[in-house]
Write a structure and sequence with these properties.
It contains 15 helices and 14 strands. By secondary structure, it is of the alpha/beta class. The chain is globular, with a radius of gyration of 22 Å. It starts with a helix and ends with a helix.
Length: 406
């Protein structure tokens, strides 16, 4: 028998000592589902994708030319770990718009998307076996980031107006979590918004037990109805670490997000960031800076997104009211990208994914959004990425899958 080079390489690789943490990581089901999104005729409600036809391509081309004229070689050179100073100043100014606080650049750390922000926070605060308190359900990407450092989870039920406060305090007393992780605005996956009253109560709880609040806020500027709630940062100040991103309001391909925290926390975050990638993409940072300073993001683009995404949300809700079986319920988000569907007890949503794909529509089963994987009655739908026509057809297809299963 002839042994080929390929055989030898495969044998060597099988013996390489990957870390237990790396081997134990599970694939993100959303990324796996996106692999089938190119299937002809498939209507994809699965990913957290914004609508590509609404990307501000023309404005970004103009911003790129202005950035080269203004910054030249600086766009192509190494940058500082914290991020381009002028961009951090612009972000701090945007954060200050709706609050009676003057945020400054020294509280901002630029990250490669908010997902890296979660990774940096996890590595800065958590040791293996430390607990994180989350809503139930919670954002899958946060679980992936915290899993890599060996975190454990205690959870409190997510209600229509946010996390159950009494249950959260019981979990704090029992497990002594190191972090309290929340998505208060149009929560991923449920689409729900934490009320102002509960935000105040959560801040008091965090201060009482000396637990940092991680306010993950990728969707806060995408509000289509209802009243704006005060951010955790403006209520809790230094007790809060806020995450933000430009992926949903500009373009995810930029991979530009940020962490906002007090300078004392930033010192540690910056060192962790430095050990990771030195700094985030400087080229994108300068283009984003010019786009923000042009005024087009705030004066034109975000209002455009809110108008169109609000209409798509309404179309999806209208179709679900018409087509879904009566036993199937769903949330009605005031903003963001997602809504949350609940099926009757004793129904496995995971078992419906393959029939749905065969019927030409994709969704994300809700089970991975539960830290302990103990609930399989829900699914998440993205209403922003598909056209009105595809939303109508996709909901019809999905309704048939539900009716067949029920």
């Amino acid at each position: 028998m002839v042994t080929t080079v390929a055989d030898l390489q495969e044998t060597v690789i099988k013996k390489w000592p990957f870390s237990m943490k790396a081997v134990g990581l599970e694939a993100n089901i959303i990324r796996e589902i996106l692999k089938i999104s190119s299937r002809p005729g498939l209507i994809n409600f699965a990913g957290g994708l914004p609508a590509p036809e609404l990307f501000p391509e023309t404005d970004l081309k103009l911003a790129t030319n202005r950035a080269f004229d203004k910054w030249g070689p600086a766009m192509l050179q190494y940058s500082i770990t914290a991020g381009v100073t002028e961009l951090r100043e612009a972000i701090a100014k945007r954060m200050s718009r709706h609050v009676h606080m003057n945020f400054t650049a020294d509280i901002i750390q630029i990250t490669s998307g908010s997902q890296q922000g979660l990774d940096l926070i996890g590595r800065a605060f958590l040791n293996p076996g430390d607990y994180v308190l989350t809503e139930r359900p919670t954002y899958l990407g946060a679980l992936q980031a915290f899993n890599l450092v060996g975190a454990k989870y205690c959870t409190a039920r997510l209600e229509d107006d946010g996390i159950n406060i009494e249950e959260a305090e019981e979990q704090i007393k029992k497990y002594n979590p190191k972090l309290l992780y929340l998505v208060p605005n149009f929560q991923n996956p449920a689409g729900l918004t934490t009320s102002g009253e509960k935000r105040e109560a959560i801040v008091e709880l965090a201060k009482k037990y000396q637990i940092p609040i991680i306010d993950d806020n990728p969707y806060g500027e995408l509000r289509y109805s209802g009243e704006r709630q005060p951010s955790f940062k403006e209520i809790g100040g230094n007790a809060v670490i806020q995450l933000g991103t430009f992926s949903k309001i500009v373009a995810p391909g930029f991979r530009i997000g940020f962490i906002a925290a007090c300078p004392e926390v930033m010192q540690t975050i910056e060192r962790v960031k430095q050990s990771t990638d030195l700094h985030s993409n400087a080229f994108s940072q300068y283009i984003l800076l010019e786009y923000i300073e042009s005024g087009r993001l705030d004066d034109y683009h975000i209002p455009l997104l809110c108008e169109e995404y609000g209409k798509r949300r309404d179309t999806m809700i209208e179709m679900m009211e018409q087509e879904f079986p009566r036993e199937v319920t769903f949330t009605r988000p005031e903003g963001g990208l997602f809504l949350w569907v609940t099926l009757p007890e004793k129904v496995s949503v995971s078992d419906m994914l393959n029939p749905a794909v065969e019927a030409g529509v994709a969704f994300v089963p809700g089970k991975p959004f539960y830290p302990h994987g103990d609930n399989d009655r829900h699914l998440r739908l993205n209403f922003c990425n598909a056209s009105h026509e595809k939303i109508r057809e996709g909901i019809k297809r999905l309704a048939k899958v539900f009716k067949d299963a029920l």
